[in-house]
Amino acid sequence: MNGLQQVFYLYAIVIVEFLAEYSVFAVMCLHKLDWRKGFFIRAAVSFAILFAAGIPVAWFYSAFGSTLWGRMAVYLFLFALFTVLASRCFEEKFLTVFFCCSMAYAVQNLTYKLWLIVWTTGEYFRLYDGWGANFDLFYRLMYYTVFAICAVLMWFFFIRNLSKKVQSRAFDYRIALLALFILAVTIFLCSVEDLYFAKLSIDRENRFAGTTFFILRQTGNAFSVICCTIALLFASKAVVENELLQEVEYLKYAISQSERQYRISRDTIDMINVKCHDIKYKLDALMVQGGGTSEEAFRELRDSISIYDCTAETGNRLLDTLITEKSLYCEQNGITLSCMIDGEKLGFIEGGDLYCLFGNLIDNALEAVKQLKEREKRVINLVVKGKDGLVLVQEENYFCGKLSFKDGLPVTTKEDKTVHGFGMRSIAMIVKKYGGELTTSVTREIFHLNILFARGTSAADDNS
């Protein structure tokens, strides 16, 4: 085999095969990311560039692939080129694409090592000696069968959940370091083992003269599998942690916005009540003076203004503002908001948290009852009461459709799960912050939410 034939042989059995396998896992890891405009054209051009670049890489492999640094350089270059081209196809930060490509590399290497464990075991027990002239055909059939099985397993155990969580997530430097660690582990282990155990093989690669080399090879394969698995588990944990940190930041922002909204609402409602109070007195004065307007017309006008002079009295000024504001909305939309609230029992909760907690409670209920056509079902019941050192918050409302639950909380029925659903999660976060217990349930067409605080009364007394 001359030099040119050697290059194309290596291109076919090493470069193309690696790129094909890696591309399968990369597509699995990247497919949930946002596509750029003209994605399919970009992807086609990227793959053309990638496989064309594989020809000079195959020449480099034929010249330096027998050395550790040369083999590592080949795989690093192919990985880097694939990552750069992939970043041109997706509307994501480069770090996000880099992380996904690193994950794909780890999964590809894990699959390859699992294959080597299967193949090397068969070679040791001489299971393939009878294949004869059909050896290459049977080898390929067995290889692709094992690869397909491993690909399915990798999808269900690692890639499926990660690809969902990676979508639209802003990664920081810790994720970049983790991706570099995964990349270094996979490339180094794969290159070192394949290079040196190939030199120990007899007849064909991964077939050894004695038991000692077989055990060493399998130990190395098992070690690589364990390292790749640990790296993938670390990556999964890091992505979940990153997601939770972003969610907490969002919820903190929501709470700060609730504080701001409370101040605006309080001032607005106070101003409206003062103005309406003055207008009622002026109307009373006009009624006494006469002026051509009937008493019934004055009364109707007075009653229509009185709706704005109905400040709730819960014993907590913040809740007074919130309940008054929500009551006005309910009145305008044909919804009954029934409240029996002992606001003094909630003095242990900070203002922003309290506004966010009850604001989300009522807003979630409003979202549900607004969809009901029956007037008698457009009702929200809210109760807060305390006894023997306990504070109980109860909310009930009708709803239509079906509710599904995850981790004890109802899952949002809106299509965009990444944007909606923060209301219930913010409630759970605040309840947990103050040592409470949150439970939700459904009875027929009624949704029940209960919150129990075990230290509310004493804390409230301390603040009074």
Précis, in short:
With 464 residues, the chain is α+β, with helices and mostly antiparallel strands.
Question: How would you describe the overall organization of this protein?
Answer:
The structure is a single chain. The protein is an alpha+beta fold and 464 residues long. It contains twelve helices and seven strands. It has helices spanning 3-30, 39-64, 68-87, 94-124, 135-166, 173-200, 211-289, 295-306, 317-332, 351-369, 422-433, 456-463, and strands at residues 336-341, 379-387, 390-398, 405-406, 409-410, 437-443, 446-453. Strand 4 and strand 5 form a beta hairpin. Helix 6 (173-200) packs antiparallel against helix 7 (211-289). The longest helix has 79 residues, at 211-289. The radius of gyration is 34 Å and the shape is elongated. It starts with a helix and ends with a helix. The relative contact order is 0.07.
